């Protein structure tokens, strides 16, 4: 039995199989209209969500199955009355696949250890692999390839989306360039950079981290940013973070250093005037809603693949 915990554990071949399946799911949704008939997805949420919840739930409906939204605030696990292991061992007797959006990555690892059905990471403080599968699908749709493209990420480097993009991009032969403030609370984790350097040397890609936003974005094919105030960041850090990240705001001026046909991406939710200007996210280079749509197709592919359906 396989899980989707992070893209670090998934081989490039596995990512390719799922991306190809996602493409077919998008082109031929009816072909999969009963692929999950009488199957149930349990969706465990500790954090808020729009896209992840709606795309997983709609995806199960479209494949003839069912999804249960379960907020940990109403659970024995969330109230400390039951361990994670007992909860997922019991849940595994009722459902066919579990996805979870949690704070601590270690809690997701514990779920995967004790579940007897596949477990999918729907975002932890450390990683967001479902997002990146949808992103890779969107990049390939727009650019025709992944390998050889320069993907520049600007902003919060010590971030779940950043780390997952680095894994996914380097596994697929991309040149991943992160522009983020110096300091370990703002730049990508050193172990992730080291892992990605190894993935890149195997795939023909590369990974680079720079505190210079112009150097990071220069000649990029894809420009990506994410919230400066992730769900787990305390509100009282907002002003300090805005000041720190403002030089990395994706503005039209900064975009001008990327290739003229570069696409702009943000996993959303987005704040205009923070991680990017309104002009960029609402402008012609932005593909953020095509990107969001692919959450549906990519996650249907993940569920089908892990459930052998
Ligand atoms: N991109 C993303 O995961 O969005 P939600 O937080 O709305 O699910
Ligand atoms: N980095 C963001 C992603 C939101 C989808 C967060 O963790 O809130």
TrEMBL record:
Name all Aspartate/ornithine carbamoyltransferase Asp/Orn-binding domain ranges. Answer: 148-304
- Mind listing the UniProt keywords for this protein, alphabetically? Transferase
EC identifiers of the protein: 2.1.3.3
The GO annotation for biological process reads: citrulline biosynthetic process; L-arginine biosynthetic process via ornithine
One Gene Ontology term of the molecular function aspect: amino acid binding
InterPro entries for the chain? Asp/Orn_carbamoyltranf_P-bd (IPR006132), Asp/Orn_carbamoylTrfase (IPR006130), Asp/Orn_carbamoylTrfase_sf (IPR036901), Asp_carbamoyltransf_Asp/Orn-bd (IPR006131), Orn/put_carbamltrans (IPR002292)
Specify the Aspartate/ornithine carbamoyltransferase carbamoyl-P binding domain's residue ranges. Answer: 3-141
Q: Which reaction does it catalyse?
A: carbamoyl phosphate + L-ornithine = L-citrulline + phosphate + H(+)
Pfam families from the entry? Answer: OTCace, OTCace_N
Q: State the superkingdom.
A: Bacteria
Similarity-based family: Belongs to the aspartate/ornithine carbamoyltransferase superfamily. OTCase family.
In Swiss-Prot or TrEMBL terms, this protein is called Ornithine carbamoyltransferase
Source organism of the structure: Pontiella sulfatireligans
What's the name of its gene?
A: argF
């Amino acid at each position: 039995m396989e899980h989707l915990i992070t893209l670090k554990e998934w081989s490039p071949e596995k990512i390719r199989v799922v991306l190809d399946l996602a493409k077919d799911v998008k082109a031929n949704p009816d072909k999969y209209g009963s692929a999950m008939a009488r199957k149930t997805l349990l969706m465990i949420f500790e954090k808020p969500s729009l896209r992840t919840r709606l795309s997983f739930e709609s995806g199960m409906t479209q494949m003839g199955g069912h999804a249960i939204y379960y907020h940990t605030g109403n659970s024995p696990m969330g109230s400390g009355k039951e361990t994670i292991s007992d909860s997922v061992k019991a849940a595994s007797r009722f459902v066919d696949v579990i996805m979870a959006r949690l704070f601590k990555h270690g809690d997701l690892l514990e779920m995967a250890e004790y579940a007897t059905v596949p477990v999918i990471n729907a975002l932890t403080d450390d990683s967001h692999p479902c997002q990146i599968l949808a992103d890779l699908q969107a990049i390939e749709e727009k650019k025709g390839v992944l390998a050889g493209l320069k993907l520049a990420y600007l902003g919060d480097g010590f971030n779940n989306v950043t780390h997952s993009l680095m894994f996914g991009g380097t596994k697929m032969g991309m040149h991943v360039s992160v522009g983020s403030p110096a300091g370990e609370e703002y730049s990508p984790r050193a172990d992730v950079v080291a892992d990605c350097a190894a993935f890149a040397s195997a795939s023909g890609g590369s990974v680079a981290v720079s505190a210079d936003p112009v150097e990071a974005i220069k000649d990029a094919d894809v420009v990506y940013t994410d919230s400066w105030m992730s769900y787990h960041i305390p509100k009282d850090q907002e002003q300090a973070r805005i000041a720190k990240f403002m030089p990395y705001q994706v503005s039209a001026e900064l975009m001008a250093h990327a290739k003229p046909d570069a696409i702009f991406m943000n996993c959303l939710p987005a704040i205009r005037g923070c991680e990017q200007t309104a002009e960029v996210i609402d402008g012609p280079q932005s593909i953020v809603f095509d990107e969001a749509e692919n959450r549906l197709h990519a996650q249907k592919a993940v569920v089908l693949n892990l459930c052998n359906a």
